[in-house]
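B., you asked whether I could sanity-check this one before it goes into the benchmark set. Here's the sequence:
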Amino acid sequence: MARKEDGGDDMHEIHGSLIEPAGEREVVIRREFAAPARLVYRAHTTPEHVMRWFGPVGWPLTTCEMDFRVGGRFRFAMTGPDGEDGPPFGGEYLEIVPERKIVYDNGFEAPGSGRMTVTVTFKEAAGRTTLTMRTLFASKAMRDEYVGLGYVEGVRSGLDQLVDVVAELMAEERA
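And here's what the prediction gave me:
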């Protein structure tokens, strides 16, 4: 079993497999929206909304197939600023609690690509919604690789765009 310098365990062995603690395999990103949870959630549920905000600025979703239900699948692909198609990725919706939580697995389609589980929660208070996106990677090495490639910045850029989509949904609702 591996030990941290302070003597604590950083991995555990279970039935011959090394298991890394979840905290070392995850990234948590929070964003507050000046909107009710139902609108922030709605922006996650249909291709026409998701295509407008998902991913970093300059990398639009050019493939956005969604079967938004538990057991349904999704498939996305982005196109880079140079016009080159990025590799397709996707997964399965594992849990959906309307206006409260979406859980899905995700990964690139290429053989041997690692998988991650993403849990998005929507917590409303006083007409504002805190979105928490918790990504649990298959390993610490996978997490470190994605963070090094700009995963956090890409998610934040997408959430910046989501602010605008949610504002438009609010304006439509008021009209």
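One thing to flag: The radius of gyration is 18 Å. Otherwise nothing jumped out at me.
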